[in-house]
């Protein structure tokens, strides 16, 4: 019994190079994915409406389990995950893959999978990581190789288009619209839809002196974050 079981264990813990290698980073409270070969990266954020969370409207079928950007992988390829954390300890768990690895700042844990059929696979963070621990689900979409190749091409084209926007002259209305999307994706979980936050841990932005008057400090906080707090650097 020892010989065959040892062979299986060695195979299960084999962390050699995959056909596709993806860096998985846990943040409070979202996941970041980076495809190392194609230099594609993005955050995956919970899309459940705040009104559902606070019982103001009925909860939907995918309550706390849907994201704006799922991880996309091709079927029949060895996918290696390199898992770490940015702030506190998280844990990346996808039960259908039999994968559960801690995401520890300063360390990289590895796992791998080969998915044989297209489908949607769901998981979650399974390490208590703060007040919004329940708000960082994992969603993986496994697709045919042709579909995956088209997705990669579209992501690369989108990144290039976004880069070119740095030279665009924006109207105030356009900036407000994009800013609203950024706030809804990156800020609302802590600072709330109304901007009043959850003091003292998550301060109110509504009427805040820094927001209204000290723009240079506001930009510094956004770009660099606040050390020793849940406030992460933007992007």
From TrEMBL:
Q: Which residues form the Cytochrome oxidase subunit II copper A binding domain?
A: 17-154
Q: Which Gene3D superfamilies match?
A: Cupredoxins - blue copper proteins, Cytochrome c-like domain
Q: Where is the Cytochrome c domain?
A: 174-235
GO terms (molecular function) for this protein are: copper ion binding; cytochrome-c oxidase activity; heme binding
A family per Pfam: Cytochrom_C
Keyword Cell membrane on entry: no
Per the record, the GO terms for biological process are: ATP synthesis coupled electron transport
Main subcellular localisation: membrane
The entry's cellular-component GO terms read: membrane
Intracellular or extracellular location(s): Membrane
Q: Which UniProt keywords apply?
A: Copper, Electron transport, Heme, Iron, Membrane, Metal-binding, Transport
The family line of this record is: Belongs to the cytochrome c oxidase subunit 2 family.
- The entry's protein name is Cytochrome-c oxidase
Species the sequence originates in? marine metagenome
Give the classification, highest ranks: unclassified sequences, metagenomes, ecological metagenomes
